[in-house]
Structures are given as C-alpha cells and as structure tokens.
C-alpha cells in the first residue's frame, strides 16, 4: 500500500487492490495497470481508459510476446478507428470522451473489466492437452474443433478449413492456440449472454458515438469509408504492438474476410445501446444533418435532381411526421418505436416524391418528359423544364460507369496485408513461405500490368456523384424547373399526376420475416427499379431496404385512405 | 455487373477470376495480368474443398499470360515455372511436363531435355508412386528427344557414307541414342492410350535396325488391343507398314477394314476400294461398293474426281455384267432421298462442268445410271459434253441410254 501517486482521473490518493493485484482508485474506480510488483505501462494506449487484467501477468514470454486480453485488442481497434474519424473531421470529443466512455461502460456491463469476475470463471489459455482431458470432465464445454467450425455470422474465416484441419492434426504437445490469454474462452462464451465483442461491432460503437454527437456522417457513409480504407477495419491488427502476438483463435476474432453489412451494424448498435442502458440520445432536430430535410437536400443534389423537389420532400416529411424530434431521436431499449435509418429514410422520401410527381409506371413519366421537351425546344427563356428522359440518360450513364468501376475495384480488392497470420507455430514457416511467393508473383505480374497503376486510395468524399451547373452541356439538373409537372389548384401547387400506385397493399410483419415487403425487380416498373438502383448504389445497400422504407412511408402517407378502403373490404387500386 | 452487397474474400476472388477469364478470352494480356496480381493472395487461403484450387489456377493462368504477353521473356517464363513447381507437390511432374512442352514449342530442345532428365530423377515419398503416369510420360518424351537425336545422327551418318567416309564415333552415338530411346518408347506404348508419335518413332527405329517382327507386333497391339482407345491412325500405321513390307493384298485389306468402320471418310478409302474392286471374292467386291458409296456421303469428297471414278468404274462394271444390280439397289436405297440434291443438282452440274470436266464425266455416269437419262445432272453434262464434241461424252450418252432400263430396276 505504498502507492502514493495521484489518481489520474480524480487526483485522489485512495488506492485499493483488486483481486488481480492491481491498484484501483477507491474514489472514482479508476484502475491502473500498476501492480505491486511491477509497474506495467505497456498497454496504456489511452491514458484515460485502462483495463483490468485478471490473473498474474508475466512480463515477457519466451518469444518476446506477452499476455494480452481480447478486449485490449478491441480497445486498440476502437482507438485507431476513432483517430481515423477525427482525421476525417469528426470532433475530438468523440474519441476522448464519448467512445471511450461507451467502451468502458461496455466492459463493465459485460463483466470483462471494472468488476469482480464472477466466481467460477477462470481465464486460462487453452491448450490441447487441457482440452483433451477437459472434454471428458466437462461435457458441456464445446470441443476445440467445434469451436473452430462454428460459423460466425460475420463470415469470418468461414472458408478457412485448413485452419480447422490443421488444428485437429496438431499433436498433444503444441499448446499455442491463441496469442491472447482468453482467445479460446472468448469464442466459447455463450453469444446470447453478454453481447460478445466482434469486429463489426466496433463499427457499431463508432456509429453510436457519432450518433450521440450528431456528427454529419450517416451509417452508409461510415461503412463506405471503411471499405475505401479511410477507417481501419480490415487488417487493423497490423497496428497492434509487436508484443501482442496474434495467432490461433485470435485470428477468428480479429481477422475479417467480409465487409460489414449495414443491417448488421445497425441492429447491433441498437442492441448495444440497450445493453449499456443508455439514456435517450441527444435530440435530432431539423437543424441536424441527420434530419430527413437535410439529408434529402444532400441526396437530391447527388442524384442530380432539381432543387425544387426539396419543397416536396419537406412536405412529405411533415405530413407523415417523420421530421419530429421524438420520431428521429434514439431511445434505447424502446421496442415499440421503429429504429430510424436516417439515410435510407431520406432516400425513400425522395423515391416517394418522385412517384407522386412522375408516377413512375413506365408510361407517365415519359409522357411528361415529352411535354417538357417540347416546351424546352420552343421556349428557351425562363430556364429549362425538368425532362425525366434527359435526366435518366445522364444519370444512367454516370451510374453505369461508376458501378463498373466499383465492380472492378471489388474484384481487385486486396485482403491480406504484410503482417502474416499463423494459426500455430507449426505452420509459421509455411505461411511465411507462401507470403513470399505471393509477393513475388505480385511483383512479376504487377510489372506486366502495363501502365495501369492501381488507383491510390481516393480521397474521402461525401459525394460520390457530382454535377456542376457550370457544365454547358446541360447535364446538371439542379436548377431545372418542375413547372412541367405541377399545376395550381386553389392557390396550391399540386402534382399534375392524379394517380399513385402503392408498392404493397399490406405490409409484412417485420418482426416475423425481417422485412416490411419483399422486393422483386420483375414485379415493378423499370423506372422505379432504376431510381431504387440509384440510391442503392449511393448508399451501398440492397434496393430492397429502400423499398421497405418506401412502403413504410407510403402506408403512413395514405393511411386514411388505406384504412377506409380496407374497412370496406375493397381492393385499393393504383 | 453484380450488386453483391455482402462482399467477402471468396466472392471478391470469384469476381476477380471472372475478370481474368474475360481478359484472357479477349487476349488482353495486360489486363489479365493486372487482375491476376490481385488474385494471387488466394494462395494464402485454403481451398481444399474446391475442385481446382488457387495454386492450379495461378499456374494455368500465369502460364497463358506469360506465354503470350509481349513483354514477357522466356527467362521470366522459366522462372515462373520453377516457382509453380514448388507450389504443389502433387502437381510437380505435370508442371514439369507442361514446361517442357513450352520449351519445345520455343525450340529449346536442349533445355527441354535437361528438364526432362531432372524430372526423371525426382523422388518424393509416396507421391512418386501416385504420379507414376506422369513419370512414364516424362520418360517417354525424353525417349522421343533421344529418338530425335538418333535421327540427327543417322542423317549425318548417311551423308558421310555418301561422301565415302564412315564415322565410327557418330555411329556409336547413334546406337546409344537408339538404346535410350527404345527403352522408354517401348514402356509407354504398353499402357493403353493414344501414342501416335511414340509408336511411329519406335517403329521407325525398329525398321531401321531390321526388327520387323517386333515392329509388326507393336503395330498390331496398337491397332487391335481392345484396351486401347479406338484410333484410326493405328490402322493407318499398320497398313503403311504392311505395304512397306510388301504384304499380300489380303492382309492389307484386313488392315483397312476397321479403318473403314471407324472413319468411312478416310482418304485411304480410295486405295481400299481399288483393292476390293479387283478382288476375286464376291464379298470383297461387295464391300468395295459399300466403301466407296460411304466415302462419298461426306461433303469433303464431293469434288474428288478419283473417288467418283472409282464409283463410276464399279457401277459401270456391274451394269455391263448385269450381275449384282441388287448391290447397287441396296446402296442406293438409303441415299436416293438426299444424294440427288447433295451431288446431282443442276447447279452442281454447271459448276462441275466449268471447273472439272473429268469430275463431271464420272459423276454424270453415276447419275445417269442411278437417276436415269432424264435426270438434271446427266442431261446437262452430256449435252454440254456433246456440244463440245468430246468423244467420251458421246460414248457416255450412248452408254447410259442403252442401259436406261437398269435405272428403272434400281429405282423401283
């Protein structure tokens, strides 16, 4: 008890000792790395957040590595991600306060740190010898093989059966199954219980922090930045310090071989928010970037649609109440409110507006376009009327080109990095040899690729498609007028289009089948499909997700009519 | 374009492969190389469940690219092949063999020989036994190259003997190549397969050294052993050998019989028919007719005057003898529906007359007999021929007119 330093957090000198022999501050429960015997500053990656390690900690192992726990690894990952976000312009608060507090809270709630470890759960590195005997004594514990063949929902290393088989072949004497202390235990934990940390979840954490701070980054943008490499995700373990040896089961946890999916990250974030017992998030008001009015404006610009459409999106938003603070703000744990996907929602609003004004039944929009074309030919003064046909052609061309580029990029994606990964010491030399061969081949064929240099990482940009009004070729439609599709009625501007067709008459039960509707391209007009395709490219999600939101909006919008019709048991037409 | 939103390693590499495939098909070597560069990291993953793994893909694709790419050199190619040999021990000999083929295509006989020798000395536990077939092939190709060297020495020797000197050193070398070649060639042709080039070379060696018995045995085995896949060339080689040996017509005919069964359109069918027609045995003559009709069923023979003359001669002979008209009837039965349009159209009559009068003569004879004097072909050609005052056409006309009743009997 001769530790007299001031606590880094509360500046008190009031130390206690944890079970593991660590000092902790009795006033603020800040825990240090310092033990009685040895002062260990190795893993103070963020001076504000420190972890607890259980068990005695050896300073160095034979191979220059040392003991480390999985959550420390994730902490590093989060730190790197936060730094990257800061570099992108996110306020430093996110990294220094919000994210690390969320993380600390998570560690505490999931009983990985900041708490007494529940009795009976001991952490130890799992070796083959142990597992082979343990299997007999503890039938409930899944065997190592079973563990390795578990297919993660993230699809990590699913196809890697050599790992499974090489492990099974390993003899009794090998014992390195994970570089981390608790790698094997981590994977064996019951997934349902404590919201086990995974790589995609790191993005959920980031998104949660961004949402809390109401930063102008949507989830689809965040994921896009991840894929483009601006935010560490793939191969982030490269940045682990040398001493943190990564091998064996750690690979299952930290090496991803698939890109995170919007739905997954989104749903996990909500689970997390509930799990952490977070209060109501800061209000999303109409001056926030995430408010549908703002996002609609952005997407309208990006989709090269007339600015005038913004009035309409605002009207729809207002009419169905999706601009309300209570609707938009996240209330964790509240199961009755629908979770808001801000980006998808805004895109869907635009789609609905387009349907309102242009019908998008593969006939009417072209008809309107013809009228506009006629008018534009004969009357050049007063600005052009918006022609759907021209817009379609211009946007389709750009979209196709971008999609083609994207497809090629995806095919050319390099997943591996310089840092070699091995499951066990036994296959280390094989892995290194392979790596060398790969590098040689890459050099050899890289030279033969000609002048085509692999494009450098593009600068992170919020807009993927941009249209300039300065172009004289008329390919920018922002300033075009909607006069051709509007008419005045009783002093109000309404659409000339009198009809509307619902995407679906009856919504599915989302809880049962996961979707509000089931989108099949062949069942819908081509124009509709095109518009969905445009936004699905911009947001990098399946068209069906946008379709779901469109259905939801439509049902809110035409609520009265629907209710009335269904009440009288007639089929709603168009 | 694929709208795959759940992109993972495997899908990404699958897409990469399909881009490579497109590029290869369009001979865009640079682009193929570009995508292959991205594909190679697949080596670091295990695909043991797949039918063809990445190492094999990379070997095959890389070979294609390096072989065709303008900036690739033989040196780079060889270096790549050496790397591929280390990639998969299960494929080692196959890679060696293909490497040798490429070297041979490039004219690097010596390097090819060295590689073959090296491969022959390879041993790798149980793999050696598993890759036994490839090993045999390697030995066989080395034998082939030995034959090639033997052949060179033989030519030098012949030159020298013409000039009057005998060269003992060359002769000895020649014999030593013979021994080396013979051993390996003999081995491979024991295994059922298609070994045309090996068989030919081996037989050549045997004939040179006078071992005709062995040669005959080898060729018989190759042609008649049912374990070997049906191979028209086997019969051709046997036939040619027998001819060289001056064998009887009987054995020559029997050698060609199976060839007719397998490849009725083979060019040797003319020889076959000629031999058969002259035979004293009725069955053989009958077969001859069948053979020549069958050959002319094929489009490649349509303008072959020699074939038509064979048929014409035989048909004429039958008609004159008035015996065995039923043979013609039998053969014509299955052909009368389509041969007229196929061979005897008015268009063809004109064309044949313009391009090849002999051809039109023979065909006209056949047409006149089979279709009667009023058929388009005969009428046109004989008319033209008589107009041109060519004697044989006048004779032809007379002949056909005289034997017109035959047509009626045939067509009935």
Automatic annotation (TrEMBL), chain A:
InterPro entries in the record: Rrn7_cyclin_C (IPR048538), Rrn7_cyclin_N (IPR048540), TAF1B/Rrn7 (IPR033599), TF_Rrn7_Zf (IPR021752)
Major localization class: nucleus
All copies of domain Rrn7/TAF1B N-terminal cyclin, residue ranges: 74-241
Limits of the Rrn7/TAF1B C-terminal cyclin domain: 258-448
Cell compartment(s), UniProt: Nucleus, Nucleolus
GO molecular function: RNA polymerase I core promoter sequence-specific DNA binding; zinc ion binding
Keyword Transcription belongs to the record: yes
GO annotation terms (biological process): nucleolar large rRNA transcription by RNA polymerase I
Lineage top rank: taxon: Eukaryota
GO cellular component terms given for this protein: RNA polymerase I core factor complex; RNA polymerase transcription factor SL1 complex
Pfam families, A to Z: Rrn7_cyclin_C, Rrn7_cyclin_N, Zn_ribbon_RRN7
Claim: Secreted is one of the keywords in the record: no
Annotated ranges, domain RRN7-type: 2-33
Family membership noted in the UniProt record: Belongs to the RRN7/TAF1B family.
Name of this protein: TATA box-binding protein-associated factor RNA polymerase I subunit B
Gene behind the chain: Taf1b
From TrEMBL, chain B:
Annotated GO CC locations: RNA polymerase I transcription regulator complex
Pfam family, one: TAF1_subA
InterPro entries given in the database record: SL1/TIF-IB_Component (IPR052669), TAF1A (IPR039495)
A GO BP annotation: transcription by RNA polymerase I
Signal peptide annotation: none
PANTHER family: TATA BOX-BINDING PROTEIN ASSOCIATED FACTOR RNA POLYMERASE I SUBUNIT A (PTHR32122), TATA BOX-BINDING PROTEIN-ASSOCIATED FACTOR RNA POLYMERASE I SUBUNIT A (PTHR32122:SF1)
Name of this protein: TAF1A polymerase
Organism annotation: Chaetorhynchus papuensis (pygmy drongo)
Higher taxonomy: Eukaryota, Metazoa, Chordata, Craniata, Vertebrata
Gene: Taf1a
